[in-house]
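User: Before I run my own analysis I want an independent prediction to cross-check against. Here's the chain; please return only the structure tokens and, at the end, one sentence I can use as a sanity check.
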Amino acid sequence: MSFARIDRLDVPLDQDEDGWPATDFQFVVDNRFTFAWIDGAPNVDPLRYSTDISGTHRLSFSGQALLVAESGALVTNQVYDVASNTTTADVEILNEEGGVVVALSFILTRRAPGDLPGTGLTNLSLIRPGYSLGGGQVFTDWWLGSLTNYPWNALRFMEILGTDEYAGFGSLEAYPYRLQWDGDRSLPGVGPLYYRNHRGVHGMPWEYVILAGNATNSDVWITIPVNASDDYLTGLATLLQGGNEFTGYVGLNKNVNIYVEYSNELWHFGYPQGAWNYQAAIDEVASGDSNLNYDGSTDREIWRERRIAKRTLEIAQIFAKAFAGDASRIRPVINDANIFTPENMLQYVNDMYGPPSQYLYGVAITTYYGSADKTSVDAIIAGEQAASDRNVPGYILNRGIATYWGLHLLAYEGGQEEEGDPRAPAPLDPYLVNQFAAARDPRMAEVEFHDLMDNWYPSGGELYMQFSHVRRLSTYGMWGVTEDLTDLSGGKWNGMVQVMESPLPEISVGAELPAKIGADVVFWRAPPARFEQWLVRSPAGGSYQLVINLDTRWADNRIDVLVNNTLIQSLNIPRDSQSSGSTDLPPVPLSLSPGLSVVRLKLLSGDTNLNALTFSEGE
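Assistant: Structure tokens:
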């Protein structure tokens, strides 16, 4: 929740290989509400709310320094131990209204006793109240408790791993650079300036994923840097499987599954990873050694989509090798966000490698809901529920795609989507105050519950990842389920708890069989081949007869009948120009498993109208 940084003082910052400052410096922690640093900013939190980080913090570092509290804190009990070359002190952080800016200057620094002043220091740590120096605890009790005291199924580490920061435009890791495991990543125990002389230093170290997953015993969802090399992937998979010295050579618990996603929102050109993947696809095709254009496609958009699927498969194979006999824990996921259909990616996988269900676990979409009417808190609450309702057709569409290919349907991000004027801090956003109030309204529990229990789960949705766990509210979004881990009484948090405590509703989508489905589909002018598909539900499974009614007046037609990516029957239908336009074809026998299935009719050649599909019980 707080922003921390190292600033220069009188001379430019310098650092050693491990990222520890080699000059005097200032340590800054800014815990204020958003835009508190701009006088008269209009688009701020009406409550000026900030978490309370006040209290006596324990400071420790190797070396010596004159400590000067420039703002937000008092320094007492400073002691230097000659034998260990260690300085300790108490830093009393104040509780200022609207948050606090702590600026602590380290002057006349001496890394070793005989050094000249201004040589920096190492092993700097500032420990929160209630925790001991050298105790080794990484996560606070508040954070752990908010996870271990509730039955969260999985934790997605996208933001805290800095996924959207990799391959930055114009940076040393921009395209075509590939990250290497040794040297191109965040590490535990290094200094705060490590990023200045190493690539790939974004977010927390991967070791912390192991600590968090094991402490909470929850599945983990990791997002792989877009520019990770195979060497990087092998190192990461090996770490998660068996750990390293920092984790005590303990990997993730064997009952913890690992959702593996290639980067985040690769459709999004606002993030560097989108452009990186796009250029990588173009260059791969240009090399002449690529299957991204296996069907002769010249569409670069299609190439980049297919590369997402291809790289996801490659990542999954590297992880499966590292986990050997435990490979079933690896759950590769394709994130498509409803921006482009996964059909292209999954058909590509099917054609080039085999059934996607042999390589992938699921497809993931977003499930955000935001109100179009922000004129009052009541309007926002009602509008968000209505927005959730409008998401249902998309849920069903993606459930059908996932079912056809034998995959799970997941939500990689979802929840309340309320943002203010993107030009903040000015001009004034007249409705922002309503959005803040709505995000804190107890009725958000009803919105959360409605979205999951009335819409997502009945539509066949499975794992639902809420964005996000804890986050400050601002004009840039009201994303957090809570804004303060010391207060878990808010509406959004209570809504999630109610969902956790409730039995899952029955799946209600799909035409329940036996049934007659009015198709009313213009199915014409193939080739190229085209298809239509229908989501059906067989409560107990069993045998059915499918009768297709269509128009045979215009052309000879060839149609494949498929169920869940399995060819059931190929139909050759001769033209009958004298027919009525409504012809029943001979029954096609189907054997369906209990639950959802997708029946796909693929027109290979011809020109027809599909009128109806009738499913009746029987052999």
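Sanity check: The longest strand covers residues 595-617.
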